Amino acid sequence: MSENTDPLPDWAPLVHGLRTRFRTRDFTAGLELVTAFAAAAEAANHHPDLTLRYGTVDVLLYSHDAGGVTDRDRRLAARFSELAREREVTASPGESSVIELGLDTADAAGIAPFWSAVLGAEIQNDDGYLEVRTHGADAILWFQRTGAHETPRQRFHLDVWVDPREARGRIDAALAAGGTLVSDDQAPSFWVLADAEGNNACICTAAGRA
């Protein structure tokens, strides 16, 4: 049996951040875990997004100033895992995912202000791609460059970001449910799938990206 060399097995590297879900026994246990996380974050002067629900605590670690994951995030992730283990709380990184909506357009700058107003969120530039984001990390909508053309059959598509360890299972489930594989040319960064009517969606991971 090969040794697990993943330095952060409790965490999923998703778009712009490290994410996981901690499975707590009840709300009180979750609140106690969040309190411990908050103390560790204050000590590190690095503050995550925490979502407390009955039975779960979801965490997003992301360096806003760097626009992605840094060593500060990795150190705090390792510390959070220690705190969870001390309390016999298990992590379920495979349950973490991010859904983005992509819109094909030849003029992102021309239409982005409309979508920013409709969604009540800010326009940000991510390596030349305009995105409408909330909380500085999650894109509600991003604009995929295309050439000028008449309106195609589908202009919107879903990008579903998953833990790289979960991608194959998600793809196999979609194919078993009647979908087809359109392209795996960019795997493991993303796979393009389609439903029975030809509507596309992408399963995306952080693997294979610069």
Question: What does this entry look like structurally?
Answer:
This is Putative pterin-4-alpha-carbinolamine dehydratase. The protein has 210 residues and is α+β, with helices and mostly antiparallel strands. Helices cover 27% and strands 34% of the residues. The protein is built from 4 helices and 13 strands. Helix 1 (27-44) packs antiparallel against helix 2 (71-86).
Identify the notable features of this structure and list them briefly.
210 residues, alpha+beta, Gyrase A, domain 2, 2,3-Dihydroxybiphenyl 1,2-Dioxygenase, domain 1, 2 domains, eight-stranded mixed beta sheet, five-stranded antiparallel beta sheet, globular, PCD_sf, Putative pterin-4-alpha-carbinolamine dehydratase, 4-alpha-hydroxytetrahydrobiopterin dehydratase activity, EC 4.2.1.96, lyase
